[in-house]
UniProtKB/TrEMBL annotation:
PANTHER family: LIPOPOLYSACCHARIDE ASSEMBLY PROTEIN B, TPR REPEAT-CONTAINING PROTEIN PA4667. PROSITE patterns: TPR (PS50005). The keyword Repeat applies. InterPro entries: CellSynth/LPSAsmb/PSIAsmb (IPR051012), TPR-like_helical_dom_sf (IPR011990), TPR_rpt (IPR019734). SMART domains: TPR (SM00028). The keyword Lyase does not apply. Keywords: Repeat, TPR repeat. This is Uncharacterized protein.
């Protein structure tokens, strides 16, 4: 259902023309990711754009959707490569199929993060919830209408089957709903995600024998929403509630560390995170929350050492993680080591170019030391003007992403800082706009 609708949306976008799409459009983001994945193949983005713009390809795509009730990405890739001649010089048809399969797999995920995808998910959630409620009503009615003597004879067995079936349905339904809402949260639709998680709590409270994990995931994600929205008190309470439900869960302990940091109870936070990292020393999320805690305490060297191996070199495993790179960049930024901050923030963006916070902090790490000088525009050296223009570009990229999201506080932060850069560059009209 969802894949069919998404591919229909893709066709509509392709017919409008790829060149008209914004850089943060799902198709554009997917092409960029494919280019990184197959970087040994020259001119892959241009070839993909040209191929996707071909009317024959679009027609084949439509034909496939109409003839297939369930969209199988592998069959789709084989069909398109075979019928639309998607080849790269010496590349084999098998390699071409692999590329197209990867393209549609990534595109499916990217579209689910887009405005259209979020609408589809929200609509689908309501359908699934209604189907579940209707099925439960039907089941209960059938049980009621059954013969009394038969129910007596098989009451124990029947009720056990009914309970197990009910539990499985609750687990399946809410896991899917939480997963979908989590994708909405990742896409930056914070308020929409928050509303969904609050609805889940309300719905879960009406169910019986709910697995603890469902409440844990809901409270955890609700805490993440509140934290993004700057609701510190609410975020703290939600993280603590989640930890109380599953006190041994790694993510729950890491979020408890964040809660202790928000309460300024640093010693308790260190106690939790040290115990966690003793058990799992390479747990990246745990390393990041400890680094954040130590940074707020002013212990920058200790925070930086968390990202190093026993030989004193930066750990490649951690630095292959976008959040790991961002956190290390943040530590250097707070330490006022802007050069190293920029180095690791750029690496974070290379690993994940969809997070506006990465672009925002990179822009700030470039412009902040220059703006502090308060130099008049005509006295700023050419080299510094170039750096300020780079900072403006990164802040504009953050703004472009945030326009599609629901984070007013972060958007305001970007606009204020971008205006400051534009004033320094003497672009007063742009600064006012």
């Amino acid at each position: 259902f969802i894949k069919s609708l998404i591919i229909s949306l893709i066709i509509d976008s392709l017919k409008e023309g790829i060149y008209k799409l914004k850089n943060n459009h799902a198709i554009k983001r997917t092409i960029a990711k494919i280019d990184k994945k197959y970087k040994d193949i020259e001119n892959l983005p241009q070839t993909l754009e040209k191929w996707l713009s071909d009317k024959n390809v679009q027609n084949k795509l439509e034909e496939f959707i109409k003839g297939s009730r369930d969209i199988n990405i592998e069959d789709l890739a084989i069909t398109l490569v075979k019928d639309s001649e998607f080849y790269f010089g010496d590349e084999s048809p098998e390699k071409s199929i692999e590329i197209i399969k990867s393209f549609f797999s990534i595109l499916n995920d990217e579209y689910l993060k887009s405005k259209e995808g979020i609408t589809i998910i929200s609509h689908r959630q309501e359908i699934l919830a209604k189907e579940f409620r209707d099925e439960e009503k039907t089941t209960q009615r059938m049980i009621k209408d059954s013969h009394v003597e038969t129910m007596k004879a098989f009451s124990g067995l029947s009720s056990q089957f009914s309970l197990d079936d009910y539990k499985d349905k609750v687990q399946s339904l809410y896991t899917k709903r939480i997963d979908d809402a989590r994708e909405i949260l990742k896409a930056g639709k914070i308020k929409t995600a928050k509303d969904l998680f609050e609805k889940f709590l309300s719905d879960l409270s009406k169910e019986q024998d709910v697995p603890k994990e469902l409440f844990f995931r809901t409270w955890t994600n609700l805490g993440c929403c509140e934290l993004e929205l700057g609701q510190i008190k609410e975020a703290t309470v939600h993280f603590e509630l989640a930890h109380n439900i599953l006190p041994e869960n790694d993510k729950g302990i890491a979020n408890m560390v964040t809660a202790m940091q928000l309460r300024k109870d640093y010693s308790a936070g260190l106690e939790y995170v040290n115990e966690l990292l003793k058990k799992k020393p390479q747990y990246i999320h745990g390393i990041c929350v400890k680094a954040s805690l130590l940074t707020e305490m002013g212990k920058f060297d200790e925070a930086i050492d968390l990202f190093k191996d026993k030989d004193g070199n930066f750990n490649n495993t951690i630095l292959n993680d976008a959040q790991g790179c961002y956190t290390l960049g943040f530590v250097f930024y707070e330490r006022k080591d802007y050069k190293n901050a920029q180095k690791f923030l750029k690496k974070a963006i290379n690993l994940d170019s969809s997070n506006p916070g990465f672009f925002l902090l990179l822009g700030l790490s470039i412009c902040f030391p220059l703006l502090q000088k308060r130099t008049l525009h005509w006295l700023i050296p050419e080299q510094e003007i170039t750096k300020l223009k780079n900072a403006e570009q990164f802040l504009s990229q953050a703004y472009e992403i945030l326009q599609e999201q629901e984070n007013d506080e972060k958007l305001e932060n970007v606009l204020i800082n971008r205006s400051s850069v534009r004033i320094a560059l003497n672009n007063l009209d742009d600064a006012i706009n």
